[in-house]
Amino acid sequence: MKLKLDEQGNVVLQDGKPVYIHDDGKEVAFDAPSAVSKITALNAEARSHREAKEAAETKLKAFDGIEDGEAARKALETIKNIDEGKLIAAGKVEEIKAAAQKAAQEQVAAASKAHAEELARTKQALDNVTGDLYAEKIGGSFTRSKLISEKFAIPADLVQARFGSAFKVEDGKIVAYDQAGNKIFSRARPGDLADFDEALETLVDQYPYKEQILKGTGASGGGAGGGPGAGGNNQLKGNLGGTREERTAAIASRFPELSKG
Fold first, then answer.
1. Can you name the residues that pair with 175 across neighbouring β-strands?
2. Alpha-carbon distance 70 to 72, whole Å?
3. Helix axis angle, 196-205 to 156-163, nearest 10°
4. Which helix H or strand E contains 260, and what residues bound it?
5. pLDDT tens per residue across span 97-130
6. Closest alpha carbon to 236 in 209, 254, 217, 258
7. The predicted structure's pLDDT at residue 229
């Protein structure tokens, strides 16, 4: 293919386009802009194909050594199923752990409740025994009191009915409190708490009717109850200066609230 020239050697143009003579003698006007545009488009297409080819080759490198694609897909599906099975199993394990933890917590709570109830019962039993022991300790002090046996005209149980609430057991020792709620201290041993008889004597000294419960006071002769109201329906029974039974009857008649205590 060559350019067509005129007699002067100039390129022959057709519609502004140079004319070429092909090997077969056919003359064709060459559209250069169209050819350039077409070449550019073909180059772009070629570049696109090349990039796609390179991307495909890069992806295929990850499958080097795999000749059977179908077998590979089946293997991947198997792995996926195994992974899902592991997830399901893991979920079951967590469920079992949660159930075991809940059961353990319930057992601990039940054991704690049972222990608390047993502790409460033991404490109540101990309080009852302690109360009985203290009552016996205080009651025994009234029964064994030398002061009561020598100076009181009423029996120990009536003395306890009147003054027993003033005595308490603290740290294993009997402690007496006066009407103001203060501990009674010994006058013979300053700084020390009064012993039972000394404390009882202090309480009796503060009692407004002490003359009527001590021996040698509040009585006049056999059978006399002493005090106002003697004779008639109000005549008192017993004898404050008589025997134990007579003194008890006299106190019960004069102070019925003591006999009820």
1. 168
2. 5
3. 70
4. helix 256-260
5. 888 888 888 988 888 888 889 888 888 877 777 7
6. 254
7. 41
Question: What are the residue boundaries of the structural domains of the chain, listed by start?
Answer: 2-49, 145-260
How does the average pLDDT of the chain come out, rounded? 81
Q: What is the value of pTM for the model shown?
A: 0.40
Alpha-helical segments (H) within 145-213:
146-151, 156-163, 196-205
Of 116, 200, 83, whose CA–CA distance to 150 is shortest? 200
Among residues 201, 211, 195, which one has the least CA distance to residue 153?
Answer: 211
| Band (242; pLDDT cuts 50, 70, 90) | low
Token pair in block for residue 183: 């501990």
Alpha helices in 67-175 (DSSP H): 69-144, 146-151, 156-163
Q: Which of 184, 235, 222, 228 lies closest to 206, judged by CA?
A: 184
Beta bridge partners of 19: 29
Diameter of the chain measured on Cα atoms: 189
Query: b/e map of 82-120 (b: 16 or more CB within 10 Å)?
Result: eeeeeeeeeeeeeeeeeeeeeeeeeeeeeeeeeeeeeee
Kindly calculate the radius of gyration of the chain based on its CA atoms and give it in whole angstroms. Answer: 62
Residue where the block lists tokens 């009147």: 162
Cβ(251)–Cβ(240) below 8 Å: yes
CA distance 171 to 111: 33
């709570």: which residue's tokens?
109
